[in-house]
């Protein structure tokens, strides 16, 4: 009786639980599944962060390119652009925009700088950066003399940092045209120059090349510099033209007005002052229109309808001392 009871209890216990080996195997399987889920979640989170960071960098890069394009391609006619050869290490270069007071001006940055520098150099983390520096007249004079300016003295702003490398090139249209005239219609690579030390001339194109630390495709951006008329030349021409106009139309004195008929009026209207006593005396007293007008007969005694030598009518030109035809 007791023996059968013990056997029944063992059978019930065997049917109601797991062995130690089964428990260990279950824990191992659950750990593997949970680890896979965790790795997947972490991977998705990292990917999302990388995509977000990439998008932010692209937006930042596009914003920087937009700022550079707007300010380089809108350079006025009297502004100058130049760039000295990069330093020996190749880590620093400066593009100088002179007489361009509105360059890279926005809220918080006062316009009116004599010189604006586009500087490519090393940042604090060892990468490359692009920054803008504003120089007033005094600082521009110091910079033009080749002297260093303290970084704390000049106003500046960083457009973008964390880049691997940055370098610039300038397209010389004259070199390209000379090669084309010489029969070299192939590559215009020779027209691209690493520096631009002719501030009185302008390159046709400015090229910026950027490399990134993440190994992505390098960026090449080309900015077009249009040919713009110098406003100082236009103003000077307007002023000189105004001075000629004011000097050519005095309106008074001998020879003013339109003259008698056709020839004399044209001479005065074109800016030629007729000498005193000339035949074409305009509408001044005593030298008005002749009694015969253009085709009429003068009231004098000359025959054939022609005025005498002393009259001022007919078709006579601005001849000093007499008018009409002899």
Set down the secondary structure blueprint.
Elements lengths: L1 H14 L4 H54 L6 E4 L9 E6 L16 E8 L5 E8 L1 H8 L10 E9 L1 E7 L1 H9 L10 E2 L11 E7 L7 E6 L6 H18 L14 H7 L57
Antiparallel strand pairs: 1-2, 2-3, 3-4, 4-5, 6-7, 6-8, 8-9
Describe what this molecule looks like in 3D.
The protein has a domain of 167 residues. The chain is 34% helix and 17% strand. The chain has six helices and nine strands, in the order ααββββαββαβββαα. The chain has a five-stranded antiparallel β-sheet. A four-stranded antiparallel β-sheet has the order 7-6-8-9, with helices on one face. The C terminus is likely disordered.
> What is the β-strand count?
9
- Kindly estimate the percentage of residues that lie in beta strands according to DSSP: 15-25%
The number of helical elements comes to: 6
Strand order of the largest sheet: 1-2-3-4-5
Report the sheet with the most strands, covering strand number, pairing sense and barrel closure: 5 strands, antiparallel
- Topology as a string of helices (H) and strands (E): HHEEEEHEEHEEEHH
Shape: elongated
Straight-line N-to-C gap: 171 Å
Radius of gyration, whole Å:
44 Å
Which class best fits the helix and strand makeup?
alpha+beta
Mean pLDDT: 74
Share of helix among residues? 25-40%
* Unreliable residue stretches: 249-326
């Amino acid at each position: 009786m007791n023996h059968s009871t013990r056997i029944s209890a063992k059978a019930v216990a065997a049917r109601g639980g797991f062995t130690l080996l089964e428990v260990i195997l279950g824990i191992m399987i659950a750990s593997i599944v949970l680890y896979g889920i965790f790795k997947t979640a972490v991977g998705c989170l990292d990917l999302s962060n990388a995509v977000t960071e990439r998008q932010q960098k692209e937006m930042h890069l596009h914003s920087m390119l937009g700022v550079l394009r707007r300010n380089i391609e809108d350079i006025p006619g009297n502004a100058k652009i130049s760039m000295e050869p990069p330093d020996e290490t190749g880590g620093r270069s400066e593009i100088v925009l002179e007489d361009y007071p509105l360059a890279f001006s926005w809220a918080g940055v006062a316009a009116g700088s004599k010189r604006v520098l586009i500087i490519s150099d090393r940042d604090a983390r060892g990468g490359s950066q692009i920054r803008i520096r504003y120089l007033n007249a005094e600082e521009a004079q110091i910079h033009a003399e080749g002297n260093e300016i303290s970084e704390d003295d000049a106003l500046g702003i960083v457009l973008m940092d964390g880049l691997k490398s940055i370098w610039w090139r300038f397209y010389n249209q004259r070199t390209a045209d000379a090669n084309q005239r010489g029969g070299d219609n192939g590559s215009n690579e020779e027209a691209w120059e690493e520096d631009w030390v002719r501030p009185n001339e302008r390159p046709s194109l400015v090229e910026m090349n950027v490399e990134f630390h993440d190994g992505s495709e390098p960026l090449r951006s080309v900015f077009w510099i249009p040919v713009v008329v110098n406003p100082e030349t236009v103003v000077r021409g307007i002023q000189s033209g105004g001075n000629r106009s004011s000097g050519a139309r005095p309106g008074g004195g001998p020879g003013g007005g339109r003259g008698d008929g056709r020839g004399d009026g044209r001479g005065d209207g074109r800016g030629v002052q007729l000498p005193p006593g000339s035949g074409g005396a305009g509408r001044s007293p005593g030298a008005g229109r002749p009694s015969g007008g253009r085709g009429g007969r003068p009231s004098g005694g000359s025959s054939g309808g022609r005025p005498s030598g002393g009259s001022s009518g007919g078709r006579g030109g601005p001849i000093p001392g007499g008018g009409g035809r002899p």
